[in-house]
Amino acid sequence: MEAASVRNAPSGLGASERRVLNPRPYRVFRKSYSVTEAKAGAVVLVGLAALAAWVVWRGAHPDPGLFADPAATSTGSVAIPVVEGRTAPDGPSRAAAARAEPAGSGPSTGSAPTVVDRGALPASLAAPGWKERTASRFDAENLYVKIDGRADFFLSRGFRSLTFVTLEGPSDAAVDVELYDLGSAENALGAFAAEKPPETKAASGGGTSWYVARNALFLARGGSYARAIGSDESPAVLAQLEALRKAFEQGIAAGEKPWTVALFADALGLPPDRLQYAAENAFSFGFAKNVTSATLDDGETELFVLPAGDAAKAKTLSAKFEEGFLSYGEKVAAAGASWVKDRYLSTFSRTVAAGTMVVGVRGAPVLPKGAEALAKLEKAVLALPPDVAKKAAAGPPSAAKPTGGGYE
Amino acid sequence: MNEDRRRFLKQLGAVAGISLGAGYVSLAPSGWPLSLSDPDGEGGKPREKGLRLPEKGFAVDPSNVLPHLGVARGADLDAMLKAAVDAIGGIRRFIRTGDVVLVKPNVAFERSAPLGATSNPDVVAALVRLCREAGAAEVRVADNPIESPAACFARSGVQRAAIDAGSEVYLPTPSDFRLLETPGATHIARWPFFWRPFAGVTKVIGVAPVKDHNLCRASMTTKNWYGLLGGRRNQFHQDIHGIIADLALMLRPTFVVLDGSRVLWRSGPTGGSLADVREGRTIVASTDSLAADAFGWDELLERKGEPLPAYFAKAAERGLGNPDWKRTNVREIQVG
């Protein structure tokens, strides 16, 4: 009794302390409940039991949709498992088949985002006798839905969006138009040059570079790169490709001529479609960013330029390049300058600071020719107006990056 | 006073213990014991029991006498396919009366057949007919394309060709995917799989085009099984060679057909220009995917002398084939 009394007694605690540290936590102060309370409690218990039963039942009969990731079919589309009268087991009826999209359609409902705008795609693309289907757009998050396997190619070149539309022509002819917004002319020209077969000569003029490879038109203008893929090489398809080229030239802004085009094309006389742009990791050098390069007529000697910001940084960066080239070559002195000779390919490379930029030549099979090209490039860079160098140092707009969950 | 202090300390200890316990179960990483952490919400989903394909896949008994690789060259696709299959034992070695056969073409992209980004519909049709003639009770054609399935099957011509040849075409819907368990796989030990066309199937044949590939350099019969995966499969491009080696482990087919009627020799896997496609005039049938693909690398993509992509070695290390096709039993036939 005494012990209980001690346990239950406040033991010197004040009223407020007792509320916090209750010395009699298990005491039942009221030993009976009213009938109403008991009924209400029973109702609550029955409700809880029903809820528990429902949870158990749902656990045993899960919604099949839970197991199907929205990307389970890659496109996330609800395709119809039926084809013109022969249905797969449990497939829907023939009537459903009629709702399936015909050939030449854009990605089916759900497979592509709802069309909100056409981006830089000009308004009228269809030549006489052709009609345009609904356009669709893809961003960095869902580009893989359209061109899985090829998406990386564009993501590494400043990709922002892809607008896709199919044009349908006579006799089942079709042209798929893919317009990539790559954010800058450097990226657009880089993608264009990288996809162009070496044996193909591109035409350039008025801010557009383009070529037709049998059934397909490839074109770079401003920050856009367009591919128009014809179903065949029929005259109707080729006429539509020509109409597209004109529509792109008229409907897509050429933008400001990139300084690299002015440098390599105007000053050095190299075709713009030879320009390659690497936003980072050029030549597999981690420090080499914002590098524009072009190959000379011999197909091997590569001239390159990159802005460093200021003269001191340019010298430091130039030294880094030399160090990088030395990792697979050795230093040789020629014509009063220091070059690096590749120990495997026996080609020559050299980098120098030219004002606030770094210029270089890489892989020259004949040293004097490489030296001559480098001297020309250096002179052309030093002749660039100061504001161009300043603008170049900022680099082209950066790419839209997927933010996880999409293209990982 | 001592009693009060003891009680206070006990209560303090209890509160601290409960706080620590609650903190642990809520903050501990999801793999730790008793952790309630569920960052991606997967833990809240019902745990689906994974399905498994037959342990030895769908392969028939191996032969020490018959060639592993049958190569037919010519222009008549039906005759070439038959000759290639005859070279490795004939269709009746593989297909018995009453078999339910799944044919898996590559219909990944919405491209017309001449562009070489998809299996040649005429080769798919020839294969369906061959299986039918061998007594197959049912032939199914299925793929989970990158783009809209309906549009890909229609534009590629595979849908029409497969139906006309007597098969049923299965286009994927979200509910057609089930979790597949592939023991030993690095990336797809448990992964959504296009299961519905596999229900009741007794034989599986892959028929893949020969394509350049931007990431793995070559897409042929082994890479073709990628088209059976669901989920966010694009993430596997981070380790493209690893996933292809996993695919070889996941599905061991009855045999594969390497459709070299056209070769997308550059700008793959999507292609687009006819300038990127050349005539291959070759069909290969093989019980060894790696041997068939290595043949395609050397002879059809014409990259002999260049090192094989890394997935060949990864799959070969697991004993899933022999990329050294010249040392396997090969039979080449000129048709017509």
What keywords describe this structure?
heterodimer, A: 408 residues, alpha+beta, Protein Transport Mog1p, Chain A, 3 domains, eight-stranded antiparallel beta sheet, flat, disordered N terminus, disordered C terminus, B: 336 residues, alpha/beta, Rossmann fold, 2 domains, nine-stranded mixed beta sheet, 9 helices, elongated
Number of domains of chain B: 2
**CATH T-level topology of the largest domain in chain B:** Rossmann fold
Q: What is the total number of structural domains of chain A? A: 3
Using only C-alpha atoms, the radius of gyration of chain A works out to: 34 Å
- Averaged pLDDT of chain B: 94
Number of helices of chain B: 9
The third-level CATH topology of the largest domain in chain A is Protein Transport Mog1p, Chain A
Q: Which CATH-level-2 architecture of the largest domain in chain A?
A: 3-Layer(aba) Sandwich
What's the CATH class label of the largest domain in chain A? Alpha Beta
General shape of chain A: flat
User: What characteristic shape of chain B results from the CA principal axes?
Assistant: elongated
Largest sheet of chain A: 8 strands, antiparallel
**Fraction in helix of chain A:** 25-40%
Please give the CATH class of the largest domain in chain B: Alpha Beta
Task: Give an overview of the whole structure.
The complex is a heterodimer of chains A (408) and B (336). Chain A is built from twelve helices and 17 strands. Chain A has helices at 2-8, 15-20, 35-60, 94-97, 143-147, 151-155, 185-195, 235-251, 259-267, 311-326, 367-382, 386-394, and strands spanning 82-83, 86-87, 131-132, 136-139, 161-168, 174-181, 203-205, 208-213, 216-221, 224-230, 276-278, 291-295, 302-307, 329-334, 337-342, 348-354, 357-364. In chain A, a hairpin with a 2-residue loop joins β7 (203-205) and β8. Mean pLDDT of chain A is 79; it is low at 1-6, 69-115 and 399-408. Chain B has two domains: 1-47, no CATH class; 48-335, Rossmann fold. Chain B has nine helices and eleven strands. Chain B is elongated. In chain B, 56% of the residues are buried. Classes of the chains: A alpha+beta (408), B alpha/beta (336). Chains A and B meet through β1, β2, α5 and α6 of A and α1, α5, β4 and β5 of B.
